[in-house]
Design a protein that fits this description.
Helices cover 47% and strands 13% of the residues. The protein is of the alpha+beta class.
Length: 537
């Protein structure tokens, strides 16, 4: 629809939908001529027996063909609108890139065709390679003191090329002949990420932003790239369209976001329905009803990487931040209302990498999550979710990462009560475990952490005994104790999950001072030595 909007000079899909209802009377005579030409092209392309995956490339070839120095798409748009494209100053990188985008725009906004994972610029193919401004752009890149560093080698068959490793988890060879195409693809992706109205001018503006982002990364400056993530499991209340966490924004997904998961199976993913105790029906989409937006650090290292070596840890910055934010949100929702154990899970994720030939999209099947239930949040639920997620992201330290992950796994991923029990107790070990007297140290620490200030010594000892019993049950599972009682395991797993959530709630609210202590052993000693005298923040 974006290509048709552009060629006819209409500004929205709704205009075309209204025209379909009203018939030819909605179009000018000139627009009808353009539609007739497009219909003839459709019939011709259909006779080619082209595989559906490559139909957009056929359309791009037709729209971007040149005759007497003019591009057909420009002629069609000029016929429909009376507007001619303004030629930019192609003596500069910015002008040259803008010129390429203006000329190739009609093919650029076609649905992406070909193998899954290709960028929007993949449709351009031959039209891009044959464009006279491509070589001009390449010459200007090699005159740029920053950008030319990407392409230090001149190979006989590929021309100027080089190697990069990026913090998006991507890397490998990069060819100068494809550089503008990759920047253009990143430009349209950025425009869509930011929900901008598409136009050649907007895509050019965002492509230039991507070019500057690359320059800054090459200089070693602090650079961030946008990440978008689909989430399912909960619905926001009618009065709330978004949540602002400070370091991330969560908003409702709508029909304009379909491009984010284009070419995947998510459109046919289906939905999950739950009936509440009040008899109300709540339906969530397995595709995702919410979209998480945040920025992540972007770094680039030049030069060939030894593929026999592990991927550099510092080159996973984007996904490290994604993991942190995802964990903080998911755990925040759990701790906000531990009785309901509400889950929110990732359905897809996409990152902007300005020099990647892929679209940076990955997705998962939410149907495989064993304990997922649809839930309609209230205004109070949203406020509590915000509060807990912010507290977790602010106070979490690397050494309790295992506790956070195992808590989420116990509630969201495990089907077997043995696995739930083990994961839940690992949370205790990560928080308060020690090399010696492990059971005593963990049970004592939990009793001191979770017993009320008014609790008697007898009550604390009773709680401590409960924790010891559950720890022993877990040890039996781990060490293969025979004839395990299933009912005891199920009850023990449930109790252990409740205790783990209570411990994390206490640590991330009333006793955040414990998170200034880096090791579980020191944390346990601190609690035991402090005894009943709590230092609350």
């Amino acid at each position: 629809m974006d290509t048709l909007n552009y060629l006819l000079g209409v500004d929205s899909t709704s205009t075309l939908e209204a025209a379909e209802e009203n018939g030819d009377s909605s179009f000018t005579a000139e627009q009808l001529q353009v539609l007739a030409a497009l219909d003839m092209a459709r019939q011709r392309i259909e006779t080619l027996d082209t595989h559906p995956d490559f139909s957009s490339m056929q359309w791009a070839e037709w729209l971007l063909q040149r005759s007497d120095g003019f591009i057909l798409a420009h002629r069609l748009r000029a016929l429909a609108t009376g507007e001619e494209p303004i030629a930019p100053d192609t003596s500069t990188l910015a002008g040259c890139l803008s010129g390429l985008i203006t000329d190739l725009y009609a093919g650029l906004v076609l649905p992406v065709s070909g193998p899954f994972g290709m960028s929007p610029a993949h449709n351009l193919a031959g039209a891009y390679y044959r464009h006279p401004l491509r070589e001009t752009f390449e010459d200007l890149v090699m005159q740029d003191r920053d950008l030319k560093r990407i392409f230090p080698r001149n190979e006989e068959h590929t021309g100027q090329m080089g190697y990069t490793t990026r913090s998006t988890g991507q890397g490998g060879t990069i060819q100068l002949t494809m550089f503008a195409q990759e920047i253009i693809g990143a430009g349209i992706k950025l425009a869509r990420f930011e929900q901008s109205a598409l136009s050649p001018e907007q895509v050019a503006q965002d492509a230039l932003r991507c070019l500057e982002l690359i320059r800054s990364a090459l200089r070693g400056e602090d650079v961030r790239v946008p990440v978008r993530v689909g989430l399912t499991g909960v619905l926001l209340p009618d009065a709330r369209t978004e949540m602002d966490f400070g370091w991330a924004r969560l908003r409702r997904a709508d029909s304009s976001d379909a491009h984010l998961w284009a070419a995947t199976s998510l459109d046919e993913a289906g939905s999950l329905t739950t009936t509440t105790e009040q008899g109300e029906t709540v339906e969530i989409s397995y595709r995702g009803d919410l979209i998480l937006e945040f920025d992540a650090p972007y770094k680039m290292v030049l030069g060939e990487r030894d593929i026999s070596e592990a991927w550099p840890a510092e080159m996973m910055a984007v996904w490290d931040r994604f993991t942190e934010i995802s964990e903080s949100l998911r755990l925040g929702l759990l701790l906000a209302d531990p009785d309901h154990r509400t889950l929110v899970v990732t359905t897809w994720q996409s990152v902007l990498d300005p020099i990647s030939h892929s679209n940076g999209l990955g997705w998962a099947d939410a149907k495989t999550v064993p304990n997922l239930m649809a839930r309609q949040l209230t205004a109070d639920d949203v406020d509590q979710w915000l509060t807990w997620s912010k507290a977790i992201d602010e106070h979490r330290i690397p050494t309790i990462g295992v506790a956070i992950r195992r808590m989420l796994m116990a509630v969201a991923e495990r089907r077997n009560p043995e696995d739930v029990l083990v994961d839940a107790v690992v949370v205790w070990e990560n928080l308060f475990g020690a090399k010696s007297e492990t059971t005593l140290r963990i049970a004592s620490s939990l009793a001191l952490l979770l017993s009320s200030e008014e609790a008697t010594a007898t009550e604390r000892l009773a709680n401590q005994s409960t924790y010891k019993r559950l720890y022993a049950l877990r040890s039996g599972v781990v060490h293969g104790a025979p004839n395990a009682d299933l009912k005891k395991l199920q009850q023990g797993a449930d109790d252990a999950v409740k205790i783990s959530m209570a411990a994390l709630r206490e640590i991330f609210s009333e006793q955040v001072d414990l998170l200034t202590i880096k090791t579980s052993e020191d944390r346990s000693l601190h609690l035991i030595h402090r005894g009943d005298k709590r230092s609350r923040s």
